[in-house]
Amino acid sequence: MPAGTYISWANQGDRLLSQQDVRFLTNNINAAVTDANQTTEVFGPTLVYARDAMKWQIEHASPNHDLNEWIDEQAASVIKWPVPILSSTRVEWIPQVQSDLFVLQTPSHLSSSHLASLQKLTNSGQPVAIFGRFEGVDESLLHLAGMRAGAASASSPLKVCAATSQAPEVIKNVTTNLNVYCRPEAASASADARIVYTVQDSPRLTIDTSGGKRIAVWSPPDFRSMGSLPLSQIWGNTGAPYALAAGVLNDLLNGTPSCTQMKLTCARR
């Protein structure tokens, strides 16, 4: 349960919030906390933060090197299509947590025990999705998803890239040809992985359900350093890549039994 509240952009320069604004926020925050304290089960996807991966990134990566690890922004864009992401946890807590779908943040440089738990989770048929540039994902997890990363590209300059949707059944009426901002990233998919869309002929979103697995991997468009460009341009063709990712996540959720049906506790840590 929340131990406090953080509000972004609460002030406009020297203009503080009015008493009416403060009362509105106070009443709604208190009501939300009261409601949260009565929650016994949480359904839908769970964001999984990989602290080991982020610690390595902070200590070893150069300032202009990133792995598209910004899962907060990525998830905030995906849920607009919509995907009901209502909870979060950390890799080290996964063995004690149940979820309809785990969404992992660029899992790499993990401890052997954390990596083993993720591999066991995926092989068990638990729905799993991985967000982040492919070179930022542990090779063994990529292999489970039927993917292989190409040459390193995390420091390459951003540019407009041509993308192609290859799975029209995922989202109705989605455009086939679109443009996204990206860094060059060569990757390849096995015959078991269904390619949802490509960027410059390289898979960027795939889903693999072979052998009882239910795993998706997504290298989202880059938008961290795009300056003042309109979000519609950064998203790419009115957000088609995010809509396709939302469609894949909902495919993974489809048919997942609820916590009550499984007689498990769904409370998040």
Summarize the structure.
With 269 residues, the protein is an alpha/beta fold. The protein is built from 8 helices and 11 strands.
3D architecture notes:
The model is unreliable at 257-269 (pLDDT under 50). It contains eight helices and eleven strands. It has helices at 19-37, 51-60, 71-78, 112-123, 139-144, 231-235, 240-253, 259-262; strands at 45-49, 87-90, 101-105, 128-131, 147-149, 159-165, 177-182, 187-189, 193-199, 202-208, 215-218. A nine-stranded mixed beta sheet has the order 2-1-3-4-11-10-9-6-7. β3, α4 (112-123) and β4 form a beta-alpha-beta unit. With 269 residues, the chain is an alpha/beta fold.
What average pLDDT do the residues reach? 83
Q: Which structural class best describes the helix and strand composition?
A: alpha/beta
Would you report the number of β strands?
11
Biggest sheet character: 9 strands, mixed
The share of residues in helices is 25-40%
Silhouette: globular
Strands across the major sheet, in which order?
Answer: 2-1-3-4-11-10-9-6-7
Number of helices: 8
Low-confidence stretches: 257-269
Classify the beta-strand content into a percent band.
15-25%
SSE order, one letter for each helix or strand? HEHHEEHEHEEEEEEEHHH
Query: How many angstroms does the end-to-end distance come to?
Result: 8 Å
Radius of gyration: 19 Å
